[in-house]
Write a structure and sequence with these properties.
This protein has five helices and ten strands; from the N terminus they run E-E-E-E-E-H-E-E-H-E-E-E-H-H-H. It starts with 21 loop residues before the first strand and ends with a helix. It folds into two domains: 38 residues; 156 residues, Alpha-Beta Complex (Nucleoside Triphosphate Pyrophosphohydrolase). The mean pLDDT is 92. The radius of gyration is 20 Å and the shape is globular. With 220 residues, it is an alpha+beta fold.
């Protein structure tokens, strides 16, 4: 590990992302397929005021939504199981536990996309949606930008299978008690699921129970 030059020590800062001045060239098409794949070259200020040049290939996904479907009357979440090739290659467990999620279509707003994805992947429409978080799942390799919601649903209407046939999609919804799902968060590195959308949504829920209760009360 390199030692900082004398006087060059970290200072206190704000916990907020920020823009920087840069020169960006591209996109150059690297390949086409399930998603567009583009190459860019970014040049910006580096260490000591010099110029830093980075060539990066980015998978273009764009804005997406996710919905943690919650039935307050039954005290359960509606999650889904769906096959993901990336997970299969990484861990050998390709049928992931997920929340309903998907891409925002051109001309569609995030709320409408959240409702549509919830219907397509869990089989039920949320009666109310609460935006809970926005995050970048993997900004080193993709421009995917996710907005997460809490959605209030009636779990008694959830089918055993769902998904959008036109997208070659199959989801298997299932119900899990809130306490059981939140208890799985304490398993740390041995948690029985690996999907980041699920982890973030459940952690938000665990930290915001009072806000959830107020939202439920306002949408009876």
């Amino acid at each position: 590990m390199s030692t900082p030059a004398p006087g060059k020590r970290a200072k206190a800062g704000d916990i907020a992302d920020r823009s920087i001045a840069l020169h960006l060239s591209g996109p150059e098409e690297v390949g086409t397929g399930f998603r567009p794949y583009h190459r860019f070259v970014a040049t910006f200020e580096g260490a000591g005021g010099g110029r830093l040049r980075q060539q990066r290939d980015i998978l273009r996904v764009g804005p997406v939504v996710g919905v943690l479907a919650y039935d307050p009357d039954a005290g359960c979440f509606v999650l889904i199981r769906q096959f993901r090739l990336g997970a299969q290659l990484a861990t050998g467990a390709g049928e992931l536990v997920e929340i309903a999620a998907g891409i925002i279509d051109p001309g569609e707003d995030a709320d409408s996309a959240a409702r549509r994805e919830c219907v397509e992947e869990t089989g039920v429409a949320p009666r109310a949606l609460l935006p809970i978080a926005r995050f970048l799942p993997t900004p080193g390799v993709t421009d995917e930008y996710a907005t997460l919601y809490l959605g209030l649903v009636d779990s008694s209407l959830v089918p055993a299978e769902a998904g959008e046939p036109g997208e070659s999609e199959l989801t298997r919804p299932f119900l899990i008690a809130v306490d059981e799902a939140l208890e799985a968060l304490s398993a740390a590195s041995d948690a029985p699921f690996a999907n980041g959308f699920v982890l973030i949504a459940l952690q938000w829920f665990a930290l915001n129970r009072a806000r959830v209760e107020a939202f439920v009360a306002a949408n009876r």
